[in-house]
User: Fold this.
Amino acid sequence: MAELLKLTAKDFKSDQEVRWCPGCGDYAILAAVQGFMPELNIPRERIVFISGIGCSSRFPYYMNTYGLHSIHGRAPAIATGLAASRPDLSIWVVTGDGDALSIGGNHLIHALRRNVNVKILLFNNRIYGLTKGQYSPTSELGKITKSTPVGSADAPFNPLSLALGAEAGFVARTIDSDRKHLQSVLRAAAAHRGSAFVEIYQNCNIFNDGAFETLKDAGTRDEYLIRLEHGQPITFGDSCVVHPPGGFGLSVRPTASVDPAEIVVHDQGVADPAYAFALSRLPALDLRNTPIGVFRAVTRPTYDEVLQQQVADAQAAATGTPEEQLAGLLHAGDTWTI
Amino acid sequence: MSKQVRRLDRVVIRFAGDSGDGMQLTGDRFTSETAQLGNDISTLPNFPAEIRAPAGTLPGVSSFQVHFADYDILTPGDAPDVLVAMNPAALKANLPELPSGAEIIVNTDEFSKRNLTKVGYAESPLDDGSLDRFAVHPVALTSMTVAALAGTGVSKKDAERAKNMFALGLLSWMYSRPYESTLRFLERKFAARPELVAANQTAFRAGWNFGETTEDFAVRYEIGPAPMASGTYRNITGNAALALGLVAAGVRAKLPVFLGAYPITPASDILHELSKHKRFGITTMQAEDEIAAIGAALGASYGGALGVTTTSGPGVALKGETISLAVALELPLVIVDVQRAGPSTGMPTKTEQADLNMALFGRHGEAPVAVVAPQSPSDCFHAAIEAARIALTYRTPVILLSDNYVANGSEPWLLPSVESLPDLTVEFASAANAPDGRFLPYLRDPETMARPWAVPGTPGLEHRIGGLEKADKTGDISYDPANHDLMVRTRAQRIESIPVPDLAVDDPDGEARVLVLGWGSTYGPIGAACRALRQRGLTIAQAHLRHLHPMPADLGAVLARYDRVVIPEMNLGQLHHVIRGRFLIDAVPYNKVNGLPFTAGELESMLEDVVKNG
Ligand SMILES: Cc1ncc(C[n+]2csc(CCOP(=O)(O)OP(=O)(O)O)c2C)c(N)n1
Ligand code: SF4
Ligand SMILES: [Mg+2]
Assistant:
């Protein structure tokens, strides 16, 4: 066990003034992350936050670690190069729903497919915040915004379904306002070796206020929110989750009508992604039946491990100094001397 | 039968056949044999964009041209003296470039009615007198190969496929090439199938013996070795040299190299080559697209590696936004553009120099980068090291502008000693740099104007950087107008003030009134044209730009010394435009954009006209 570094949340606050709108959900996420970081027990210099562009992507400036605020959508690609060459670092990508799923969709799915050892935090406010309120790829169909005055015409992505389709080994969801839950998910993501994809429902009180209110409001949340816990039967409010007889996937039933033995016991280690995918499909349009927590945590070799191993194997098989090897390489093949 | 032996000083041979006929390999082997003899060599392959164009058709013709001489040569030759045509398509496709008197060796077995019709010959050109101005050698290459291999047990198909070795044997005899290396090569190539080693070696010998015995070939040629600087040589293509240059840069910088790339012709070979050299600490990533490729390379640079991305023009277009980010971040990054004919997909296997504007100016905002261009296949090695040197020393993206002509062409390369290569060692920042104990990520080195390279993992130097405008020194986000003005000018100036060597001007008698100025792969044909003019008693000066940005400090003074400056380019005048704009001189453009390199001949007559008529 490494020696205890005794860091506190304060050590992770940078000297930059935080510039989100008052009331923005990003503040709560920042505080939760800063509060969680000491738990990692990793020296600050070995932690890197990389983001794209968006309100959410300002995040690295506020963390007193290494930080790179890059360009729109490309953070997963940049993080891949860093992770592949520096396996000693703890790398976190912060992105938004537009950043990750619109302009950067390609990089996101390929980072997950490769299983690059980075933790991806997607702040989903279902809107473009920084560009002042256009609909995003997670906005509900028919969303009325500045760019869609009579309603958006395209159906949204389900980020978790997408991540699972992209072979993600770790997939989770949490909510900005529930610090305890958020930190528990960060803990699980950090412990997972390989890509970890975390969707964080984040309130944009300026352009999409109350998007997740039913999940937060004391009057509705028990009926709307499913808290997944590994090894526990999946129940919430008066409902539970079962395998529908003769059907596909999972469905929600009144607990009273179900034999307790039929209630699905959550297992984040199910190898077949179909289970986590079925969980990801539970929410209704009005967010009823929304699971939060770790959907899936299944490990496989990471991209950086495999690449580093290839380099290590090649180096182990080689003899001589790099200069001698280079001389040998230059002189390889048919040569002649004059 | 004793044959007459004639000495020549130079020959250009073109091997042409169907894509499936193995002409690239045949040409490669002939080149290797020739190299062993000590001739100077220059080669150029020409292959179709289609992987398997329909057999026997004009678009399916693949060729390989080799120029070798007993003196120092600069180009693969304007036109072949000898054409080896494996089928009617190969004959027809190459005939327009053949000068009268050229020798043609044709594989008559392929001249069937059906094959002739496929390429639009109503009658066989071998019979209708249309080839009278050439020296034609009809040879039944396929059937003689099959006959030579009768009883060896190889299938008819494998026997037919060995016909390229028969052709190689014949040509090797004709030009008195040493062939041991080819026999050894066949042993290596077919190691898993010994029957094919024997079959191909037999076919090769059959071709050789055919030359010796047949009366049709009455003359055998010899081309003596060229006087070349002493040392060890190897024949190398530009792409291979460029890849080795990147390996060498990593070794000399003592840094891991990270290559992010997305396959694209004609750059993919660099990815293929580098992926073989992991023992040098090289990581290669085949990314999901060009944007990811450069993003990953930049991420690796941020982490302390030498980040490299290799592509062609369409890929550079996609990378533009990330290059600008690298300009803002001031991190080392090498971007290799192996140019091809555009716009869009254009002619992907043909050459062009039309990405200069994009390299110099093709980004949003004021986003200056250094630009370097190799002038020959072997020079790609040194140009790659130079690009890495600038990137690492001055913490900047550098665009290396190669092109299809140098990338796929080859020439003998005098192998440098490792110690003679520049030392590229860099120092990462390890401690705070401000008097008050703070770390300022944009505090510059007074000499290089480079900012500190503080890689993650360094205690105490945690800092945030990004694409937003940064305050001078601190790197904090800044929207201050005066600061932005200062930063834009600083970024421009720090690139502008990178020291690059003065221009080397080749003006043997110092009397020239005309200067021909080129850049990149046109060095060979321009140089050959200048030599030809001088041999004819005319005076002309030649200078070639390796550094396109910044340019040599003495360039303006050099240009001012001449009455006329001519700028030949394989584009519509991109360097010409820059030179006119910067130096206000009335330079003369000469442009060609047909996907083919300049011939020395066309440049010679164009330059002659300028020299004589101003
Ligand atoms: C290449 C490029 N295109 C467009 C933009 C403008 N832009 C900046 S952020 C953004 C959308 C951000 O939305 P999201 O990712 O959801 O982040 P949020 O602001 O909601 O946190 C857009 C379109 C840009 N910066 N770069
Ligand atoms: S616009 Fe929305 S997301 Fe952006 S800072 Fe303001 S509240 Fe937050
Ligand atoms: Mg958003």
